[in-house]
Amino acid sequence: MNFELNEEQRLLKNAVREFAEKEIVPYARSYDEKKEYPWEIFRKAAKLGFIGIDMPEEYGGAGMEYVNVVIVAEELSRADSNVGSAVASSVLGCPMLKYFGNEEQKEKYLRSVLEGKTTSAIAITEPDAGSDVNAIKTRAEKVDDGWVVNGTKTFITNGSISDWIILIAKTSDIKPDYKGMSAFVVETDWEGYEAKPIQKMGLNCHDTAEIFLKNLFIPENNLVGKLNAGFYQLMHFFNESRILVGAIQLGMAIGAYERALDYAKQRKAFGKPLIEHQAIQFKLADMWTEIEAAKLLAITFSLTFFNLQFLIEYINSISSGARVVFIGGWKAIVLQELFYVLWCIPIYPFACSIIISIYDSRKDLSKLENKLLVAIGLIFFNPFVVPWILAAIIVLLLRIKWMI
Fold first, then answer.
1. Which of 27-31, 120-124, 190-194, 399-403 has the weakest average pLDDT?
2. Closest CA to 67 of 370, 258, 295, 257
3. pTM for the full model?
């Protein structure tokens, strides 16, 4: 497999980097201090076609391959872990409509995001339901011409600034629980929808909200896809969104590394720059090794998104991305010796990595998924161990009950 970017992808990467250096870097600190979503930057990015670059052209997207989403997200987050990732996360609600929405929904809602009029969101997490999607309690009761929804969602990115969100709710008492979920597209100005921003230790430009749904009426035609198929649609969404999150983490790590490298060249200790001390060289070399490994994994799966053979790379890319940005941010802090400075660029990727590491699912849960996928891979590629692997899969399934 060829991991080199083609000419079109290199041009895109250069264009996004130029945009990020000009429009994000000079203003990142201001947006962070004001704790505002970077609307102006988002709209400029949309005008240049960087928002939803994989979305169909007929709705305002560029119709490009998903690897280009990785390129854009990486470059935006490299410029600034806070503002860049906020802009890259503006499309969170779009994949569900892209794959499962009807034509009316796509035209009305997708286009509004791709034209820079609004961000989007997907409301899954609840106070008592995170990685365990089966535990959601938000319920949609069927009424004439639609549904009435009651419940609470939390940690919803873009939940209080978007004009519309994708909502996951229970629509049936059928067992097992995952067979009774459905997805809806909800406009946030409807009566019964209330969102309150949540204060965080990082990602201050991100809108993270708690959402309260009180007798919210959803019209019949706002059901996304099939009734009670929400869980299956959601798993498809996660397959794609986790690549996006991995790319954001990767960009953060690259940005932290580059800033640490610049500082190591400027700062002097014992009569010479830090970069000339072997201990510092080890730290920088370790950071770059981790970054390059994560980069290969992220690109690999974005190129082979629909190939079962590479599902293992997908899980590993997310785990590596979280580890890389955490390690990169920490080592950048060690290099700068600025633990108590509130706004220190290398500290910011570190603070952001703590939040990013729980996006889409806890990483310890991803480790369990990884073991299961390794077992599946062995079945495909080594038929002599089928009985043993089947036994291992049964044990794993019993341990992670949420999957069954």
1. 399-403
2. 295
3. 0.79
